[in-house]
Structures are given as C-alpha cells and as structure tokens.
Amino acid sequence: MILTFFNHELKSFWRSRNTGKSIAVKIFLGLMILYLLACVIGLGVVLDKLLEGLFPHDDLVVAFCGILLVYFLYDLVMRLQLQELPTLKVQPYLHLPIKRNKIVGYLALTAIFSVFNLWPIILFTPSIVKIIAPENGAMVAWAVWLSIIAFSIFNNYLALYIKRRSNLNGWIFLVVGVLLSLVVCGDYIWHLYSIQHVSNLFFGNLIKMPVLVVVPVLLAVVMFFVNFYYLKANLYLEELSSKKAEDRKSSTEIPFLGRFGHIGDLVANEIKLILRNKRPRSALIMGLFFMFYGLIFYTQKAYGESMKVFVGMFMTGIFIISYGQFMYSWQAAHFDGILVSKVKFKDFLRAKYILFTAVSTVAFILTLPYAYFGWRVVMIHFVMYLWNIGINTTVVLWFANFNQKRIDLSKGASFNWEGVGASQLLLSFPLIIFPYVIYLPFYLLHRVDIGFAFMAIIAIVFIATREYWIKQLSKDFENKRYKIAEGFRNK
C-alpha cells in the first residue's frame, strides 16, 4: 500500500497544471541542497582540524563528543522552522476503506526521508572514522554512529509532533520556542550549565560502554510511536476540524475589538486569518522568536548604538515587515469579494493600521526586559516603535498596492516563494534606510539624542495625520485595484 501511495503522488505531481513551475522550483531547491551538501561534506572532512583549533587544550575525542548534543539542539530549532509536515498528501484517502495504520505508517515513514536526517551522517562520519575508530575500535565507532542516527530520528519526530500539536494550539509552539531560548541562554549567557559538558558526559560514557547506544535508540523509537499514535488519533478530517473549531472560537472572539465597530470586525477577521492558516501564522510565530534578536547584539560590545536602531526597529516591527509585505495577497482567494462588498477600503486600511499598531505594541512590551542592558535601550526601542507604527506601516501599505501575486494560505513558509516579487525586494530598502537618513547626520554631529527626538517627532506627525495617509493610500488603490485583482486570479 505504501508503494501505491507513492505512485499516486508521482502521478499527482506530473499531472498537475503547475508541473512546469513545480519542476523549476524543485530544480532550484535541488541545486541549493546539493550546494549545502557539498559544504557539509567539506566541513565533515576538516571537522577534526577545526576541533583542534577551537579546543587546543582538550583531547580531540572529548572535543568531538562535546559538540554532538549542541548540534542536535540547533538541529531541532532548524527543523521547527524549516521542516515541512507530510500531512496533506493522504487526505484524499481518508474517506476510503483503507486501514488507519497503513495511512499513518505511510506518513511516518515518508517523514524519515528528510534532508535534515542526512546532514549529521555526512558531517560526523568522517570524524568518527578518523577520531573514534583508531583509538576505540570498530564496535565503539558503530555505537557512536548509530547513536547519532538515533538522535537525528528523535529530533525528526519530535519536531513533527510539536508542529502537529501547534496546528491545533499555537501556544505550544510559542512555549517550545521560549523553552529552547531559555536552554540556550542558560548555557551561553547566564552560564548556569554547559550543554557541551552534558554531551561529553553521555558520549564519553558511550565510548566506555557501547551498550548505552540503547538510550538514543529507545528515545527515537518512543518518539516515533508518540507521533504515530497522535496521528492515528487525529487522522480524520472531522476530528481535526472539530478541535480546530473549538480553538478558534476561544481564541478569536475578542470583546475588546467590538468597541471599534465595523473596523473591529475587520481586525478580528484578520486575526482569524492569521491563526487559522499556516503561512501567516508562521509570520506571527517568527516575530515572537525574533524578540530574542537583541541578545545577539546587546551582549557584544563590538556593536555600537547605531546597531540598536536597526535591532529596535526589527524587534518592534518584524510582524509589520514579515506579514505586511504580502498585503493584500493574504486576501487573494476572496479579493474579488472584497471589491464588490459594502466594505469601504478606507475601513479596510484602518483595520490594517489597528492590527499593526496592536502587534507592534505587544512586541515593544515584550522587549522591555532589555532594560537589563540599560534604560537607554528601552528609549531607543520606544522611538523605533513609534517609527514602525507611524512611518513603516504607511510605507508597507503603500508598497502593497504594487503586489499582484497571490498566496496559498495553507502552505508553509519554509522554502516557499509564492507571492514573492519585486515589491518585496524593494520594500526592504526604504524600511532599513529611512531611519538612518535621519539618525546618521545627528550621529556624525555628536547630537544623537536630538536625532532620536527628531525621529520620534516625525513618527508622531505621521501617526497624527494617519487619516490623510489612509485617504492617499485609498486613492492609489482605486487606480490599481483591477490590476491587483487580475494578478490574484492567476493561479
């Protein structure tokens, strides 16, 4: 039956109306993967030399054992962001008299064929041959190699399980992201423990007692069956949809928005669109992850205050940038309905402004703990928060009138260039350059505080004159609406 599923997927691919485009995308992705594969092979060949340079005072075996769990921690983070779920491929079979175990087994087995499971084998095998095998023998080398494969499979199914649970409850992904961030901070910033030491403790004992390879193998098997039975319990569309319906009802009925009347309803609908669909939801989740972006720069003395302008703008406005750059592609599927509805486009724009302001406000509040690095950091964040809701929001909505590429909301964000066009590339330049056009002259004159005050004043003026900008954006949209609608109709 598994071969039948695979055969049907091949036929579905070749018979698709977008086969030409899909082949071009897959060729491009294939070339990228081959390039990365070559890089990983090269890194694996010289890994022992790199370890000698990075850990000159440690034994090479100790250094190698110490990096393994560190790698798998970051491997899990990358999988949560980039690895796709093989879930929609078997939906046409759910109403047929096919046993659940066969469908779930197909989903579980196809999940193993991920490029993420190939990286550790290619990266660490040369070092196992050159470092572990000569001193400890073939049996120990095989045990280490098998444990690496087992940890990779464990990460594979753990990431899939978290992402599937997150489809029903988005808070799970957020909690996992916070926990992973705390684990990393606990080691590299707060120095409460050492992941490298824990890794060396396990793999060092594994070299002495190869029987310990049973531990990662059991973890992989347990995670496989946890994923298997969760899929089996939630396989049918009726069960998934009923659970999602309950979650949506509890998460999108926001009484506060009722105060804004018709515009509040539009904002609520936008929130529902974000929470119910993969790609816009990933933009929100990515924004939450980037709240830790400041830890990269604020902990390094090499970065000056000018970098804080960029970081502050990025953290308080990442949602405006990542979600706003695809306006109005998120509504592409029902854009014709919007054009003929009674909804005034000015109200539509007001709803966008309210949404961006609300999310950016929450983002600014989440960055308040950066006061640990000084209250001046909070001041810069506040100025850039005003800049985002005043100027960047207007710039993003203006560029939206040039976007004519539709987006399939159900598709994930990783390796997905649907809806990406020239307007998205051009949008990044004014968003990054405009703040520095104001800031740098004052910086060169050593009047930085006056520069920040001037930026805040300009942002407040834009906020105060928002109705004027809404009117101008609406006029520009009226001239381009039919061209935008025609672009959204092209699938």
UniProtKB/TrEMBL annotation:
Name the residues that span the membrane: 23-47, 59-82, 103-122, 142-159, 171-191, 211-231, 282-298, 310-330, 351-372, 378-400, 421-444, 450-469
Q: Which UniProt keywords apply?
A: Membrane, Transmembrane, Transmembrane helix
Pfam families, sorted: DUF5687
Protein name per UniProt: ABC-2 type transport system permease protein
- Record organism: Mucilaginibacter achroorhodeus
